[in-house]
Predict the 3D structure of the following.
Amino acid sequence: MTKTRIQRSDREWREILTEEEYRVGIKEGTERAFTPGNHNDEHREGLFYCKGCDTPLWSSEHKFESGTGWPSFWQPA
């Protein structure tokens, strides 16, 4: 199943996303390793969703500790 790419203006994306989410998700930046909020220390059970389109990305069942400072998953949702 192929999903249609969501088309939003820069202004719309900036209203939905934080500055960091916009930089990483829209401008293809990279989160700094071991920084608060990058989900590295997230251990709740469930699915991780894209904030921009609500697509499930990763399941907590497939998360592992890689020691890299970024959340790591061995299989997409």
Observations:
- The chain has two helices and four strands.
- The CA atoms of residues 41 and 58 lie 15 Å apart.
